[in-house]
Write a structure and sequence with these properties.
A hairpin with a 3-residue loop joins β5 and β6. The longest helix is centred in the first third of the chain and has 20 residues. The strands form two sheets. This protein has a 15-stranded mixed β-sheet with strand order 4-3-2-5-6-8-1-9-16-15-14-10-11-12-17, with helices on both faces. The protein has a two-stranded parallel sheet with strand order 7-13. 47% of the residues are buried. The chain contains 19 helices and 17 strands. It is an alpha/beta fold and 473 residues long.
């Protein structure tokens, strides 16, 4: 009787909390059903994984109101001509610009250069070079920072920067820091470098924060040179090192005014974790133009930034006329995005989705498959990329607009993690990314409905059961 009363009481609490707090009906129903049908365990799972305990990082410290690092912009004749030409050739994208203004709350910044770096083989040397040449400050945030051959190189570079008298700040996600032993948080602390673990989880009862991870990858040196994308600091991303589990990914070197957006995202996360406010020219110098790309940062997280990525994706699919191309390792998007992809394909837009042939998380691999027949029936092209594991995150539309960064197309990235992306308007950048996508498609196998129908009944049951777990994934 005691256990039954406790179960009913907990299930009622979950029901009331989910009704009041959960924004998605399907997710609320899933949690409520789990609480009632799995006595006590379902309620415990909801308490651990279903509650958002994060208060807005920046607002709680007054940083958003206090800071205004957006550079002043003066349009040159060349700028006006370029904007006029872009507006004439791609008039529908004016609506996407306005959407970004409202969703993100900041203007597009002129005069940026963004260079794609393929795998850690290209990204790490550039990042290490930037740290070695830094003169004032280094800010580094990574979801994973392994104690391996690559991690040791970054550790030595950061130690050298510290010894040269630079201001060095390093933040590693509390869960990501535990991917290898010894933890790089402790190794960095031993050298005297200021390091923070984002929402560390050292005890099982603190796993309530397991979903609220800082999945961002940001490096900024001297407040002038930035790097962001999907690449963690671990040797698996360096194919030349012949790692046991090779991972293909894309990272980006960023220069120009938009670097202040990267630095601000880091500074807000740092202040949330340490209460230290980074300000002044050490971290936010005056930035000069470096190229012709229009860009702005798109932070996303389970706080006031929630759904920004989701809304930008829906907006981009709505204005697409010719092509929409997606590369992601994890593909469990919301129903609204699935519908938008299908509608775009039926409008005549060539929609390409590239997924890895074998995922590093088996249940994610299984859960993806039941979504594919509906997409294929509506005209979406789905490709399966062979090894190495495809960890790239790309979204390119009509050869002019691209979204690059850390976000996967799944519930964890879209609603549960803190992510960082850049929205970019540039035909040159989009062409370079399209070339990368073309190369991936040339190596990939296209998925067909006939192939999916050949799966055995047991495999279909397994995949369907995995898909039922998607609200929890």
């Amino acid at each position: 009787y005691v256990l039954a009363t406790l179960h009913v009481s907990c299930a009622i609490w979950v029901t009331l909390h989910a009704i009041l707090r959960r924004r998605e009906v399907s997710t609320a129903i899933a949690w409520i059903g789990l609480a009632w049908l799995s006595p006590l365990l379902g309620s415990i799972a909801y308490w651990m994984f279903g509650i958002n305990r994060i208060q807005r990082k920046g607002v709680s410290l007054g940083l958003i109101q206090e800071w205004d690092h957006t550079p002043e912009q003066t349009l040159t004749n060349e700028d006006q001509q370029r904007i006029h030409r872009g507006s004439s050739e791609h008039p529908t994208f004016l609506g996407l610009v306005h959407l970004g203004d409202k969703v993100i709350g900041s203007d597009l910044l002129l005069g940026n250069s963004i260079t794609p770096l393929i795998n850690g083989d290209e990204a790490y040397p550039e990042m290490l070079k930037a740290i070695d040449q830094a003169k004032v400050s280094v800010a580094l945030s990574s979801y994973i920072f392994d104690a391996d051959r690559v991690g040791e190189q970054f550790l030595e570079a950061l130690k050298s920067a510290q010894q040269r008298g630079l201001e060095v700040r390093v933040m590693i996600d509390g869960v990501g820091a535990r991917y290898s032993k010894p933890s790089m948080v402790r190794r960095l602390q031993e050298t005297g470098i200021k390091v923070a673990a984002f929402l560390p989880s050292k005890a099982p009862w603190k796993m309530a924060f397991a979903n609220l991870r800082n999945h961002r990858k940001i490096l900024v040196t001297d407040g002038e040179i930035g790097f962001t994308g999907g690449t963690n600091i671990r040797e698996g991303h360096c194919l030349d090192l012949d790692p046991s589990f090779p991972v293909a990914c894309l990272h980006f070197k960023v220069e120009g005014p938009v670097v202040c957006d990267l630095q601000e995202a880091f500074a807000i996360d740092w202040a949330f974790s340490t209460q230290e406010k980074l300000s002044g020219p050490t971290w936010f110098p005056k930035l000069e133009r470096s190229g012709n790309i229009l860009s702005r940062g798109v932070p996303d997280g389970p706080d006031e930034d929630i759904d920004k990525i989701n809304e930008m994706i829906l907006g981009a699919l709505a204005v697409a006329k010719e092509r929409a191309r997606i590369v992601t390792p994890y593909f469990l998007p919301s129903r609204s995005i699935i519908d938008a992809l299908c509608v775009a394909a039926m409008r005549g837009v060539e929609v390409d989705i590239i997924l890895p042939s074998k995922n590093n998380i088996a249940i994610m691999n299984w859960a993806v498959v039941p979504q594919l027949p509906h997409l294929l029936e509506k005209g979406v092209n789905v490709y399966i990329s062979p090894a190495p594991f495809e960890h790239t995150k790309l979204f390119v539309v009509d050869g002019i607009w691209s979204l690059i960064g850390s976000t996967n197309w799944d519930p964890r990235s879209m609603r549960l993690n803190f992510e960082y992306n850049l929205e970019c308007y540039s035909q040159e950048l989009a062409a370079a990314l399209d070339k990368q996508i073309d190369q991936k498609i040339s190596r990939a196998e296209q998925v067909t409905i006939e192939r999916l129908e050949q799966r055995s009944t047991l495999v279909r049951l397994r995949d369907g059961a995995a898909q039922l777990m998607s609200p929890y994934l």
